[in-house]
Amino acid sequence: MAVLAVLAGLLAVALGAAGEPCPEPTIVPSYYTTSDAVISSESVFVVEISLACKNGAQNVALYADVNGKQFPVTRGQDVGRYQVSWSLEHRSAQSGTYEVKFFDEESYSALRKAQRNNEDVSRIRPLFTVNVDHRGAWNGPWVSTEVVAAAIGLVVYYLAFSTKSSIQA
Fold this sequence. Notes:
Blueprint: H1 2-17, E1 26-33, E2 42-52, E3 63-66, E4 69-72, E5 74-75, E6 81-89, E7 96-103, H2 105-116, E8 128-134, H3 145-168
Antiparallel strand pairs: 1-2, 2-6, 3-4, 3-7, 5-6, 7-8
């Protein structure tokens, strides 16, 4: 009898861990992308959303898809706050708009099934989409400051030496 009670408790915990459905989501997105490639090795993308569902669901399991690559979405400490992040090499992170598709558990499992069966994944409708504008990462000046300083030093030396030679002549 005790074993049955333990199994029932485990089943309740497992079902409680599953995400709730979110009909008609309302989102407030914000995002960050790397803008300086000089001080970082990769371009980082961070998308944070504030999610409110019509049914008041607070335990929504979300997954994100960016250019055919899936990422888990983490829940923040505040209710209704979610975040997803990924990184790309600077060469791969072209400037432009990245479409981040968010899926709930049901649509995500349909997406994964379609990928496994080599079916058309564009048929699967995401829960919502966030567009991330990446302006590209700045790689620094074309000429380093050391080269500019050395060139100025050589010009000053030449001017001083030629002026000294003309005075002594």
